[in-house]
Amino acid sequence: MKNSIKKILIAHSSNDNYGSSKVLISIVNILIKNGFDIYLILPHNGPLSDNEIIKKAKIKIINLGVFRKKYFSFFGLINRLYYIIKSSFHIKNILKKDKIDLVYTNTSTIISPAIAAKFLGLRSIYHIHEIPSSNSIYSRFIVNFLNYFSDNVIAVSNAVHEFWLNRGVRGSKIKVIYNGFKYSPKPKKKRPKNKIIFTSISRIIPYKGHSLMIDIFEKLYKKNSTLYLKIIGDTLPEYKNYLSDLKFKVEKKGLSNNISFLGFQDDVMKMLSKSSFFIHLPTSPDPLPTVIFEAIKSKTPIITNNLGGAIEILNNGNFGLIIENNLINDSVEKILNFINNKKNQNDNVDNAYDYVCKNYSYEKFRKKILNLFE
Q1: Is the pLDDT of residue 1 over 60?
Q2: Where do the domains of the chain lie, and which CATH numbers do they carry?
Q3: 342: three-class secondary structure by DSSP
Q4: Is there a contact between 58 and 39 (Cβ–Cβ < 8 Å)?
Q5: How does residue 148 score in pLDDT terms, banded at 50, 70 and 90?
Q6: How many angstroms separate the CA atoms of 243 and 222, rounded?
């Protein structure tokens, strides 16, 4: 395949194995297999660098001045500005030295790659995974930045697309490309006997809703003592106290025997195969939680809420149990009814599997990504 674009610089905001990093792995794999030379910038060392696909790219570690909540203060923003300016010049030199044709930035929390691309007149693509609904100043800044510094914006879900479109990103720039996944024939699921295991998998940060989940589980446990909750995931350094508070909350409620914190786990599918239900209750919109797809692949019934992209994955919420965060008692009753309705669970997992195979296929994702890059 002959491409006018051969060399692509990709910048990513983290070095981990969570959702947006998994999407990055897919994109790097697609591009390399189609003859592109990939230059990858990561903000620090971490487990993503050890991925076999990622190692095929030419990797550089550069502090990109990633936007995090802990930097939203006067001195924090000065810190970010310093690293953004520094990394912009560094990336500009890389673009010139290696004769890069296109810059792709994965997540809206980094801006220096697009600034460097603008200086040199290179095409810039953004892949947006965020819905920063709680920070209007930040979102307004990113809207103006995207309108001026990007040529194309990929939104991972309709929820993400509508959020940024409504705040002013030009409609001509932004389009939805759903993440794509490979699906094997429907697996057979053996659910745990004699106990009911809820599994939560996500990074442990406040908006993922673990505190609310513990409150709901406490009420469920009072109705049924055979329930267990496994919380899988680690946290960021700035949220270590939050994680400690969650563990103390569990201990104070006398639920230490039934709620366990297992940290980060490499084999998510193995953990889900031993689960009765997957539960995910963010307190603000979660753009498109990748782990929902993994729960569907494992044929694990899903309990989630009406915030963000999860209801899109479940066909407007038809193929999972949707609850509302502010109606805790009502949600508890719905979950208890769902636990007892095996037919509903089986119908949901089968329908969800068929739906995502059709609408979130790897082949669809591959074609759309290649069309955009070429």
Answers
A1: no
A2: 7-177 (3.40.50.2000), 196-359 (3.40.50.2000)
A3: helix
A4: yes
A5: very high
A6: 24
